[in-house]
């Protein structure tokens, strides 16, 4: 039975509307109407008023609390004009008026004084409440809202029978994750089987993986397979507006969920609330986030006692920042890795998304999968859509392989920008730079075969590019391959050095990546002989233990830091020298390919392979 989102007009909602109306009325009667209709007495500065009193021009004065009205003397039977001024604290005024023989009196109290003062006391708080309401209502999407339901959960509820039901068939390339989640589906479908034996059904499952790998999709699929309601809320939504709202939202979310058990509560971006409580560091924690987190922990501890099967799925791409308390047994004690798909996984994902578009006969999904290492599911979905857009733009009735080829380049390197014009000198530099990458890259293992060199600018950053495609998926790299990659990255700059004897800013990104890679070799992969097979983690996260004391194993000493720097420098410079040697040895070939590239702008395929076959290896 489908359960719809509840949105009944509660009494509190009605009260809220009445309050809004009263506030508006108050504003109109007190500020807007007097302004429009009110007695228009011209105002003058106080000094002028005193001046006129002293000059004996004033007939009578009425002193009110906020206003002094005064009338000038009658001249030629014309009654004097009435002016007003704002009083200032002046104890000498009565004396002065008496001296000048001016008739004066205090202003009579306004007739409706009780009413005004009542309004004055009652209305401002009402306005405040009304504004509060307004913001809450804006902040809250669905769900019951009103004065008395501040902080009600705005979890979206997806339920069985919804038109777009997600199942495991919609998710591909994450076999291990699916296998683990099949078990969860079973818990939800037949909790009795487990509890009879005395097994404790896990409460929390944490999906960990990079963005776009299908974590949200998997959570929905679990609900879809089990046929249970799916409450979804994002961690970042908790951390907003008023202190205390986050924790009451958590409470309410679980209350709703328990009523509909068995069901799934999905918390996306768990790291937004679940950040380690000690990681606030010197700046102190975020109280609101902490309260929300504490409430979440309390709820997760609570609901098993009540015998309801509520399974909390959560997703994060930063498991390392999560509070350890979240990962304790009885909370998110299961972690499921949702990683980027491998070759066959990518093919399967492409197959799923390609069903939505008309494919040409020549399309080879396997070939596309081979060319897209590192793409996550979302990137592949995007790729299929790009290809379809290109086909439509080229007025084709179905998507061809060449559309996919162009879409890949688009997704990888940004949109082709034919309009960007380089001057001849720049073009020449870019050509030698790219050929430098290609020549060095063709000799080095580990980074794949050079498939294309182009000096057609793409996207924002790349003026030209060299495309290297792996011939297979790689999971492990050895030291020589990493050094080869670094040399390849430095090949561009080395070519500039050799040919032009100068360096441009074009290699910034290459240098950054080369340095990062070298640093990882030393600090993460333990490939340095000097520093040994230790992991030297750097950065904020790992620097302090729970009690705030520095962690001596992780934070390196000054000496270690210097040793790391030296090692990184050694690796990069060796690679640089290797690139220079290779290019010097193949100087003629560098000339030849660069000249061709300047003519055609792109060299690829067989032509490129046969040129690169001529590269000679430096013997040493
Ligand atoms: P995440 O939550 O991990 O950031 P999403 O689940 O939001 O990623 O994925 C976004 C979209 O990308 C999905 O709606 C789906 O279309 C596509 N996608 C991602 N991963 C996969 C996958 N493994 N199989 C099929 N489609 C996927
Ligand atoms: Mg997501
Ligand atoms: Zn480069």
TrEMBL record:
Cofactor comment text: Binds 1 zinc ion per subunit.
EC identifiers of the protein: 3.4.24.-
Membrane topology: Multi-pass membrane protein
Pfam families associated with the record: AAA (PF00004), AAA_lid_3 (PF17862), FtsH_ext (PF06480), Peptidase_M41 (PF01434)
Keyword hit for Zinc: yes
Enzyme class: hydrolase
Entry's Gene Ontology cellular component terms: plasma membrane-derived thylakoid membrane
Ranges of residues in domain AAA+ ATPase: 201-342
InterPro entries: AAA+_ATPase, AAA_lid_3, ATPase_AAA_core, ATPase_AAA_CS, FtsH, P-loop_NTPase, Pept_M41_FtsH_extracell, Peptidase_M41
PROSITE patterns per record: AAA
Metal-binding listed as a keyword: yes
Domain of life from the UniProt record: Bacteria
Database matches in Gene3D superfamilies: 1.10.8.60, 3.30.720.210, P-loop containing nucleotide triphosphate hydrolases (3.40.50.300), Peptidase M41 (1.20.58.760)
Keyword set, alphabetical order: ATP-binding, Hydrolase, Membrane, Metal-binding, Metalloprotease, Nucleotide-binding, Protease, Thylakoid, Transmembrane, Transmembrane helix, Zinc
Transmembrane stretches, start-end: 14-37, 113-135
Gene Ontology MF: a single term: ATP-dependent peptidase activity
Gene Ontology biological process terms from the UniProt entry: protein catabolic process; proteolysis
Coiled coil location: none
Record's subcellular location: Cellular thylakoid membrane
Active site as annotated: 434
Cofactor dependency: Zn(2+)
Binding-site residues for Zn(2+), renumbered to this chain: 433, 437, 510
Family: Belongs to the AAA ATPase family.
Subunit structure, as described in the record: Homohexamer.
Name recorded for this polypeptide: ATP-dependent zinc metalloprotease FtsH
Organism for this UniProt entry: Dulcicalothrix desertica PCC 7102
């Amino acid at each position: 039975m489908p359960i719809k989102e509840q949105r009944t007009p509660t009494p509190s909602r009605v009260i809220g509307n009445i309050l809004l109306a009263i506030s508006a009325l108050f504003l109109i009667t007190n500020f807007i109407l007097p302004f429009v209709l009110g007695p228009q007495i011209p105002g003058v500065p106080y000094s002028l008023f005193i001046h006129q009193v002293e000059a004996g021009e004033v007939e009578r004065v009425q002193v009110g609390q906020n206003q002094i009205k005064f009338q000038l003397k009658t001249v030629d039977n014309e009654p004097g004009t009435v002016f007003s001024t704002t009083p200032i604290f002046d104890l000498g005024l009565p004396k002065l008026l008496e001296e000048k023989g001016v008739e004066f009196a205090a202003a009579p109290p306004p007739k409706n004084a009780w009413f005004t003062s009542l309004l004055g006391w009652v209305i401002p708080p009402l306005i405040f409440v009304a504004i509060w309401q307004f913001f809450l209502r804006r902040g809250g999407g669905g769900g019951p809202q009103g004065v008395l339901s501040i902080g009600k959960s705005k979890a979206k509820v997806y339920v069985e029978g919804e038109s777009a039901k997600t199942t495991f068939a919609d998710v591909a390339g994450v076999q291990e994750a699916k296998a683990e989640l099949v078990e969860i589906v079973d818990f939800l479908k037949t909790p009795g089987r487990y509890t009879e034996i005395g097994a404790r059904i896990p409460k929390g499952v944490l999906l960990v993986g990079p963005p776009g790998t299908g974590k949200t999709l998997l959570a929905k699929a679990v609900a879809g397979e089990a046929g249970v309601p799916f409450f979804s809320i994002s961690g970042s939504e908790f951390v907003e507006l008023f202190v205390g709202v986050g924790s009451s939202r958590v409470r309410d979310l679980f209350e709703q969920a328990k009523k509909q058990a068995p069901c799934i509560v999905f918390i996306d971006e768990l790291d937004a609330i679940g950040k380690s409580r000690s990681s606030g560091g010197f700046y102190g924690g975020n109280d609101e986030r902490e309260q929300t987190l504490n409430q979440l922990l309390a709820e997760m501890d609570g609901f098993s006692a009540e015998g309801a099967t509520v399974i909390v799925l959560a997703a994060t791409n930063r498991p390392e920042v999560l509070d350890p308390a979240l990962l304790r047994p009885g909370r998110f004690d299961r972690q499921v890795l949702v990683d980027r798909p491998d070759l066959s996984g990518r093919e399967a994902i492409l197959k799923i998304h390609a069903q939505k578009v008309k494919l040409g006969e020549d399309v080879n999904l396997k070939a596309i999968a081979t060319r897209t290492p590192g793409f996550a599911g979302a990137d592949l979905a995007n790729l299929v859509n790009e290809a379809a857009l290109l086909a439509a733009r080229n007025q084709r009735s179905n998507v061809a392989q060449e559309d996919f080829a162009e879409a890949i380049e688009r997704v990888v390197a940004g949109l082709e920008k034919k309009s960007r014009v380089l001057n001849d000198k720049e073009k020449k530099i870019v050509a030698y730079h790219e050929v430098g990458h290609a020549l060095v890259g063709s000799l080095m293992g580990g980074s794949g075969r050079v498939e294309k060199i182009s000096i057609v600018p793409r996207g924002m950053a790349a003026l030209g590019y060299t495309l290297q495609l792996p011939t297979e998926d790689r999971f492990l790299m050895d030291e020589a391959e990493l050094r080869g990659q670094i040399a390849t990255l430095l090949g561009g700059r080395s070519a500039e050095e050799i040919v032009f004897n100068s360096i441009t800013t074009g290699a910034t990104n290459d240098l950054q990546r080369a340095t990062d890679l070298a640093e990882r070799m030393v600090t993460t992969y333990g490939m340095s002989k000097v520093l040994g097979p230790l992991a030297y983690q750097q950065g904020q996260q790992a620097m302090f233990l729970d009690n705030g004391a520095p962690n001596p194993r992780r934070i390196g000493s000054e000496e270690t830091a210097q040793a790391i720097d030296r090692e990184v420098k050694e690796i990069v410079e060796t690679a640089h020298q290797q690139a220079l040697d290779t290019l010097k040895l193949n100087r003629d070939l560098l000339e030849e390919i660069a000249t061709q590239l300047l003519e055609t702008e792109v060299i690829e395929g067989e032509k490129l392979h046969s040129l690169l076959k001529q590269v000679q290896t430096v013997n040493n």
